[in-house]
From TrEMBL:
It holds the Pfam family MarR_2. SMART domains: HTH_MARR (SM00347). Residues 138-165 form a coiled coil. The keyword Coiled coil applies. GO terms for biological process: negative regulation of DNA-templated transcription; response to stress. Signal peptide: none annotated. SUPFAM superfamilies: Winged helix' DNA-binding domain. It comes from Bradyrhizobium manausense. GO terms for molecular function: DNA binding; DNA-binding transcription factor activity. NCBIfam families: HpaR. It comes from the Bacteria. This is Transcriptional regulator. Keywords: Coiled coil.
Amino acid sequence: MAKRPADPISASAPAARQVPMRDFSRSLPMSLLRAREAVMRQFRPSLREHGLTEQQWRILRALAAIEAAEVTELARTAFLLGPSLSRILRDLEARNLIERRTAKADQRRSMVSISKEGVKLMASVAPSSEAIYAEITRRFGARKLAELQEMLAELERSLAELGASDEASAEE
């Protein structure tokens, strides 16, 4: 009987275990991704019921908080890449959920705002969304949820400062 070659994944497993890194399940990016997925799993059925994707909802939520946004600023606010945002805006515009117009100061730039139809849709999603938030709060605890949000904001600020100081050092 011929000997089979070793499976490359299992053959490298002992070496991989010797890499001086924290366990994969304890990595901060993975912990954040798992937590995000657990939260979004609660919201997806409601969004689907209203014909929305997570990204479309993020854009509508961002636009509902402001009068209008320039497209590149909206991409930053909603954490979306430009090409994805363009497609999503096209879909939302086709559904009359947003309005686009040319920026007065720069004709090359586009301003986006939520439409009356978009506000109506958000109003129909809001009760379900708030009920989900209430259930998350009930299960996790209001104090712990507030602390978590503050800690995440603090983490974001400290890493933004770290990135800013690194960029400043690189420029010197």
